[in-house]
Amino acid sequence: MSGILLVRDVMTRNVKTVRTDDTVLEAVSKMNKFRIGSVVVTNNGRPVGIITERNILERIVEPRLDPMVVQVKDIMSSPLITINL
Q: Which among 33, 27, 12 is positioned nearest to 75, based on CA atoms?
């Protein structure tokens, strides 16, 4: 079966999450703590989006917004595509 790439071979098992009402600073702190480039955003425990380093650069750093005030839901990428295994 060479040439076939399975999701289970490339997926992340221990996904880190933040809530939609968390601040961007809280998301950045979690990303730094776990040395990761993104976190999944959840609402009532369900995945609704993702925050990446690029989101933060484009939507917080460049326009000079305050990461202590802006909420994750305001800069996340959505919708989030998921699969059930």
A: 27
Q: What is the CATH number of domain 7-74?
A: 3.10.580.10
Q: How far apart are CA 41 and CA 38, in angstroms?
A: 10
- Over residues 30-56, the pLDDT tens digits come to 999 999 999 999 999 999 999 999 999
57-84 burial code (b ≥16 CB/10 A, e <16): eebbeeeeeebeebbbbebbeeeeeeee
Q: Which two tokens stand for residue 74?
A: 């305001």
Q: Examine the pLDDT at 28 and tell me if it is beyond 60.
A: yes
Domain range summary for the chain, segments of one domain joined by +: 7-74
